[in-house]
Design a protein that fits this description.
heterotrimer; A mainly alpha (618); B mainly alpha (207); C alpha+beta (351); A: 618 residues; mainly alpha; two-stranded antiparallel ribbon; B: 207 residues; 6 helices; 0% strand
């Protein structure tokens, strides 16, 4: 089942297998691969940005290209790298943690992935066609985004619309999976924190993404069909976009960070050999953060002129989020307190996360103070802040999770030495890059500046920042080498390499495609640990061995996504010439036909019989 | 797993739509989906409320909205919600023919609602020159009401596909959740329309 | 609040000053050395929140360090199983209550300052300036004084100046870090804020909301002069005669070329109303050319001949026939003698 052995089938069969798969573990591989690819792309864009800013008044790239560069860096990193990587981890781990054989809607799972992938590819096609990539920032504020020439922003609208639809499906899928498919005994309050985070994050996706969908529709209508939502001359109002964008955008921040919190909770507890301190508080803190996350969107808009009443309310709500976040930090520390901490690569990322994220949280509260924000807003202080939370929180979380669950996902252990080197280089590079940016912002450097002028005291800070960025680049390269190394000659992973506590460690690495031969019986929080301490060290089955019902592979999700993407190209270019409408119709025809086939053709899946399972036993 | 066997009154479970895991998943998934849809329409409503007086010299809501037609549309859609309830009642009693009959009526009511909506839009465009492009109010109005109309159209297509596909198969545990989720979706569309009627038309008359 | 805040503040200002002296931050640009009311309000909160947050950070790091020293896995203790603790009500309550208190400490002054800075009730008695943000320049109209100028905004020290901001195209944001925090300049509604400079000086202003390719070059200046000098400047500006002929022959040629190329259709001089491009009435006194270049004739000639290379995406590019170097030189000569007041950036101490 490992990649190495599937390779022997020949590349074509291997590819077809992945294109048509509905297995959550393989879809997780796809997400990790897709997200990883876009992560490298976004990283490259980041390095180009830093090269442009290495000296004052540099002309390494032109002003227009620079705007495209940071826009695509932001969009790529958030929508096409961080989110898919997290969705990949959720796909790989969450069903195992709750003792399920798959997710609730395997078909939708595959569709969600392909929509994301095609949306991302569509977005990146803007580099080659239609007059350049989107250049109005990842926030794409109107009216600048309406005025932006070429098709860049059209690509932004359709690319995000398509990949956003995929994400929404993923969210619904995880929610239903957790509600209906938990193993016997796996009550909500026995779920590992990563599964809890998946649940709450999915809730956020469900309620946040539609606001973006609407915003994108309005922007699309204004750009392509001459509507007047943001056209001041016809009574439109550009601030509506900002509201819709941030009603989505702020929960999005928590969509990125909560799964990382879940990862750190599970890793801290496992590698300290202790039960998570204050489990109930951790769960409720997660829910509270998510809830408050919907109440604070206007803190991105303190300078818009909403008035002192709105600014005060949103300032206080924002600061309030510090309370549940603080609870989490202290609970992690208390979990480690009195434990027996193994410091390996996964734990290093976790340990690096705590001070880094605490700084990010600190500056977050500082930004919440509305009047102070009049100075911070749209400067490098903000850039520093959100990189401290998104890199220091989300990315550290993803890397910790990759090191921690790599054996479970791929059956190989990542090289420890290289893992540690990666961490130390990345960690120092990160702080070198972003710490100084707090001061650059306060010294008068707004964000999204193509050049900074000479003799403004900004030279040294920017130089340091660029050096740090390249250190991070080197660390990523070492991590890639580590992946290839483990793939070719890495140590084979045992089922339970870290003395694990939750269900995923009770089955082989990588797990069989039906996950659990017999649905497990869960007797408490940390079920595997309980069995290790009180039982025979094995999870008890909740049912006798019997036939297992599995879904069939299908190429339809791929075809649907392809159809929507073709239609997307059509929508973008029909503005130039109505002949492109053919693409819209063709694409929609492919998509709708696939949908029709899906709904008219009964797909009952297949069964793995008891006899086959017994034969596989040894 | 007895997917393909039609039900008879003896083997019929209490709630055929939730008797299988797949059925429960579908049912719950649709509920979550409707939760997302609520945010979608809430965002459209918010946009509409912000822009409803931004007429830019063009027609205003007090000039064009007449309540008669819209009231008829409301009644039609509300009735269609009721008929879909009858259909589900017959599904639970395992009366396939009556279920199909009431679903058919639901679909016809939906189509007449759509026809009236198209007439309404044409009326605004031709008689008042009030279009998608005439003002921010126009854009917001057609987008909000149009998205609802699009949902009705999708619902009708869904219903037709379901009825045609299952016409000769009778009711079973595989398709019962499909009919049931459709009816949930249809109720949701109805609820959204009640809000449109209030926020767009009633408030629009008052000005 | 003032008592202990004052101590922290002086401590902070001292260390900030050290930073500035060490070459970090330019005196008339950095927000870290406030020279105006708004910037000072922000700075107070920045300091307060930093102190509160540093307290939290230090506590976290203290526990963190102890954990790392004491609780790492010991050699030969592979089988050691720590006590499995579920939680601790008291501890958990403590680290819930203390952050709530800290947040309150921060919230109260924040709300007070927010309302204070939004108070426009006295705008009737003060100086009112209408600010228009354009890609990529700033336009200033003094309401009562009936003066128009661009790029350099003159204000008197120690007085509240109310600025009413509207954008002519996309969203911009008006930011003079040393004097005040920023506020967005929207196309659909007028935003009002006030500036009050404590000291004379030429303060850098920046556009802080992405507005296109030359966003980073949309600089302007706020020139704070003494009230007497301000009055002088106002009366000088009010008495400009737009028809005045230049003294020198080259400049006269320049004026003719200026008219021939129809420059006035965009640029106003004196009473001329057009504001498609920056007002040029007191051009010779500008602190910069195009918002960021040194005000030399060479730079002006470069700008006139190829504005695109200096400010990508600006609207002046291709709006007039190509100029020969000679013609550009004459026009530059004309523009650089548009000097109607002795009150210049140098009156405020220069750049």
């Amino acid at each position: 089942m490992s990649i190495a052995s599937t390779q022997k089938q020949g590349f074509g069969a291997f590819l077809w297998d992945y294109i048509t798969t509905v297995d959550h573990k393989k879809i997780a591989h796809l997400y990790l691969f897709g997200g990883g690819f876009f992560f490298l792309l976004g990283g490259l864009e980041a390095l180009i940005i830093r090269l442009q800013l290495v000296v004052p008044e540099n002309d390494f790239i032109s002003a227009g290209l620079y705007n495209e560069m940071f826009t695509m860096h932001g969009v790529t990193m958030i929508f096409l790298a961080a989110m898919p990587l997290l969705l990949g981890l959720m796909n790989a781990i969450m069903p195992l943690q709750i003792g399920a054989r798959d997710v609730a809607f395997p078909f939708l799972n595959s569709l969600g992935f392909w929509l994301f992938m095609f949306g991302g590819i569509l977005l990146n096609f803007s580099w080659f066609m239609g007059g350049g990539a989107p250049d109005a920032g990842w926030t794409s504020y109107t009216p600048l985004s309406l005025q932006s020439p070429g098709h860049g922003v059209d690509f932004y609208v359709l690319g995000l619309q398509i990949s956003g639809a995929g994400t929404l499906m993923g969210g619904i899928n995880f929610l239903v999976t957790i509600v209906t498919m938990r193993a016997p005994g796996m009550t909500y309050m026995r779920m590992p924190l990563f599964s809890w985070a998946t649940f709450v994050t999915s809730m956020l996706i469900l309620f946040a993404f539609p606001a973006l969908t609407v915003g994108l529709f309005l922007l699309m209508f204004d750009r392509m069909f001459d509507s007047a939502f943001f056209d001041v001359a016809l009574g439109g109002n550009s601030v509506i976009w900002q509201h819709l964008f941030w009603i989505f955008g702020h929960p999005e921040v928590y969509i990125l960070i909560l799964p990382a919190f879940g990862v750190f909770s599970d890793i801290t507890s496992t590698l300290s050999k202790k039960r998570l301190f204050g489990y109930t508080a951790m769960v409720f803190a997660t829910i509270l953060i998510a809830f408050l996350g919907f109440m604070v969107w206007a803190h991105h808009m303190f300078t818009v002129g909403l008035g002192p009443v709105a600014n005060s309310i949103f300032a206080i709500a924002t600061m309030a989020i510090a309370v549940p976040t603080g609870i989490k930090i202290f609970n992690w520390l208390a979990t480690m307190w009195g434990g027996s901490i193994t410091i390996n690569s996964a734990m290093l990322w976790t340990l690096g996360f705590i001070p880094t994220f605490t700084i990010g949280g600190m500056t977050g509260v500082m930004l919440g103070s509305a009047v102070a924000d009049y100075q911070y807003h749209d400067t490098y202080f903000v850039v520093a802040h959100f990189h401290y939370v998104i890199v220091g929180g989300t990315l550290f979380g993803i890397l910790a999770a990759l090191h921690f669950w790599w054996p479970k996902m791929f059956g190989r252990i990542l090289h420890e030495g290289m893992g540690k080197i990666t961490f130390w280089i990345f960690f120092s590079g990160f702080h070198l890059t972003f710490f100084v940016q707090h001061f650059l912002g306060l010294m008068g450097m707004p964000r999204r500046y193509w050049v900074f002028l000479e003799d403004q005291g900004l030279d040294m800070g920017n130089l340091v920042s660029t050096i740090g960025a390249f250190l991070m680049g080197i660390a990523v390269v070492i991590f890639l080498i580590n992946i290839f190394y483990s793939w070719s000659k890495g140590e084979k992973a045992p089922a339970d390499p870290w003395d694990g506590r939750s269900l995923e460690w009770a089955i082989s690495s990588p797990p069989p495609h039906y996950n659990f031969k017999q649905t497990p019986l869960v007797r408490g929080l940390d079920p595997l640990w309980i069995e290790k301490m009180e039982g025979k060290g094995e999870i008890r089955p909740a049912e006798p061995l019997g036939d297992i019902h599995m879904p069939n592979s299908t190429v339809l999700p791929f075809m649907m996504s392809l159809g929507f993407t073709i239609a997307g190209f059509g929508f973008i270019f029909q503005v130039d010439h109505s002949a492109y409408l053919i693409l819209v119709f063709a694409g929609m025809a492919i998509a709708l036909l696939s949908m029709l086939i899906r709904s008219l053709k009964d797909d009952h899946g297949y069964h793995i019989t008891k006899e086959e399972l017994e034969r596989e036993a040894d | 797993m007895s997917h393909d066997h039609s039900l008879n009154p003896e083997t019929m479970p209490q709630e055929p739509e939730k008797a299988t895991l797949e059925g429960r998943n579908k049912f719950l998934g649709l509920w979550f989906f409707l939760g997302g849809e609520t945010v979608l329409f809430a965002s459209f409503f918010g946009t509409y409320l912000a822009l409803r007086n931004s007429t830019a010299g063009g027609p205003a809501s007090t000039d064009i909205f007449g309540l008669g037609l819209v009231f008829a549309m409301t009644m039609i859609l509300l009735t269609s919600s009721l008929t879909s309830v009858y259909a589900m009642y017959h599904m639970k009693n395992n009366d396939f023919k009556k279920m199909m009959l009431w679903l058919g009526i639901t679909g016809l009511l939906g189509i007449s609602f759509l026809a009236l909506e198209i007439y309404e839009f044409a009326h605004y465009i031709i008689d008042y020159e009030f279009t998608f492009r005439s003002s921010a109010f126009g854009s917001a109005f057609y987008t909000l009401v149009g998205f609802h109309g699009g949902h009705v159209l999708f619902g009708i297509t869904w219903l037709i596909a379901l009825m045609v596909r299952n016409a000769k198969r009778g009711l079973n545990l595989y398709n019962a959740p499909k009919f049931y989720t459709f009816s949930l979706y249809w109720h949701f569309i109805d609820v959204v329309w009640v809000f449109i009627f209030t926020v767009v038309y009633l408030m629009g008359r008052v000005g | 609040m003032k008592g202990w805040m004052g101590k922290f503040k002086s401590l902070f200002l001292l260390s900030t000053l050290a930073l500035v002296l060490a070459g970090c931050g330019r005196d008339n640009l950095t927000a870290l050395v406030p020279k105006g009311y708004g910037a000072e309000s922000s700075m107070n909160l920045i300091i307060l929140s930093t102190v509160v947050m540093l307290f939290v950070f230090i506590v976290v790091m203290l526990v963190y360090t102890i954990v790392l020293i004491r609780f790492r896995k010991k050699k030969g203790q592979d089988d050691y199983i720590p006590k499995q603790v579920e939680g601790n009500k008291t501890l958990e309550t403590v680290w819930t209550i203390i952050p709530i208190i800290l947040v309150l400490i921060l919230a109260v002054p924040t709300v007070a300052a927010t309302f204070d800075l939004a108070d426009e009730s006295a705008s009737g008695d003060g100086i009112n300036i209408d600010v228009t943000g354009n890609q990529y320049w700033w336009h200033f109209e003094y309401d009562d004084e009936e003066i128009t100028t661009s790029q350099d905004m003159y204000i008197p020290v120690g007085e509240r100046v109310y600025i009413h901001m509207l954008s002519g195209d996309v969203i911009h944001s008006f930011w003079v870090p040393s004097i005040s925090g920023k506020m967005d300049v929207n196309p659909e509604n007028v935003n009002t804020m006030y500036l009050e400079a404590y000291e004379e000086g030429v303060y850098w202003g920046k556009c802080a909301e992405l507005c296109g390719p030359s966003h980073s070059l949309m600089d302007f200046k706020v020139i704070a002069v003494s009230p007497e000098e301000y009055d002088q400047w106002v009366s000088d500006m009010q008495s400009v005669d737009p028809e005045e002929e230049p003294q020198e022959a080259v400049a006269q040629d320049g004026k003719a070329l200026f008219e021939e190329n129809n420059c006035m259709s965009c640029h106003g001089i004196g009473s001329s109303p057009s504001a498609v491009g920056p007002d040029l009435t007191n051009f010779a006194n500008r602190s910069t050319i195009a918002g960021y270049l040194e005000p030399t004739k060479e730079n002006l000639v470069d700008w006139l001949m190829d504005p695109e290379s200096l400010k990508p995406g600006n609207l002046m590019t291709d709006a007039y026939p190509a100029l020969s170097e000679e013609d550009a030189d004459s026009i530059a000569e004309y523009l650089l003698q548009l000097d109607h007041s002795d009150i210049t950036p140098d009156s405020a101490g220069g750049m």
